[in-house]
Automatic annotation (TrEMBL):
This is ABC-type glutathione transport system ATPase component. It holds the Pfam family ABC_tran. It comes from the Bacteria. The keyword Chaperone does not apply. It comes from Actinophytocola algeriensis. The keyword Metal-binding does not apply. GO terms for biological process: transmembrane transport. Residues 1-221 form the ABC transporter domain. Belongs to the ABC transporter superfamily. GO terms for molecular function: ATP binding; ATP hydrolysis activity. Keywords: ATP-binding, Nucleotide-binding, Transport.
Amino acid sequence: MTALDDVRVTVPAGQTVGLVGESGSGKSTLAKAILGIVPVAAGRVLLDGAEVPVRELTRRVRMVPQDPYSSLNPRRTIGQTLAEAVDPARARVGRHRDRIEAALAEVALPADAADRYPHEFSGGQRQRVAIARALICEPEVVIADEITSALDVSVQAEVLRLLDRLRHERSLTMLFISHNLAVVEQVSDEVVVLHHGQVVEAGPVDDVFAAPQADHTRALLAAVPGGGRSPEGTIVE
């Protein structure tokens, strides 16, 4: 069985590309293939036009995972987790204290969060830690994989506002994976629509949402209240 067939996704530097599709369309499989987590029969990952060896991918491309509860080691403090992200070979909190505190401040968490354990935080706070962990090593590309789907509706908007701020402040190059088209519209510059492991439509977000060309894209938009569009300048809650 072929999970992905001739899928090509280009993420321009400093921009966010939304990857959308129904469950089973191949979104997360593509993310894992990019990171070298799952083997591929053919294909390449290029950064700045050059092919990247798998051993370099974990340093240059970082993921914010879907589940904030299982993504953090319960036996490690937040500081230890962030120190390991900076330097796995010398993951000492004291050595990286300044970077850890700066990373926590960037996601609106206090410095003393470094000394606490994951179970002491809410789901939304843990996802902030996961974002800090992804950004602390200054990756060239960030992959955000359904990062609000495991959160309560009341905190989803907070995390999305944080991510939207960070992508503008840092000029992040990001692949944003979601099944929620309204959210993709808010945080992405371009959108790629997957269906059964194939790209059925791609282009600037405004163009695709205003005049979708593929039947599947039109069906996805029709399934969202308001046709998938949201008030300009807002983050969908």
